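Fold tokens
===========
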Amino acid sequence: MIKNESKPITNTDAPKYKGGPITTASYPPGASMPVDEKPGPTRAAAGRAAHDKLTDLLGRPESFWRQTMSEARQRVEDLENEANVLTLKLAGLQTRFYAESDGFKQQQIQREIQKTIYEQDVNKANVARAQTRLHELDTEARKSGALPGWLTARNP
């Protein structure tokens, strides 16, 4: 004869089973719930609590993804703004170069132009890396089960 290996768990036993697999059972007809057990939260309250604690498959909450994606988008935007500033700076230097008649001052301006061109090249590489990182984060989030709304920017 096979023994019934299931054992009811009371509230006093619950802490040692925290994080374990969950199974549910109902009491047979005519049986009542033991007096030392209290009913859990209502379905609506449990739904709200579960929504507040939603996580992806790796346990990262909505706030993690919103902050991470926001920082990555901000990084791309800052680098793109820096690229625009460098373009304007280069245009101003070129205007100064052609307006200058002194050869020595033209050489100084030419060095600044070369430095700005180098800064533009570095900036282009940084923008490409930041955009790649943003794309990788988006892919990682989707693979880990983050909800699509967590990845979009909130409108003010």
Notes: The CA atoms of residues 57 and 144 lie 5 Å apart.
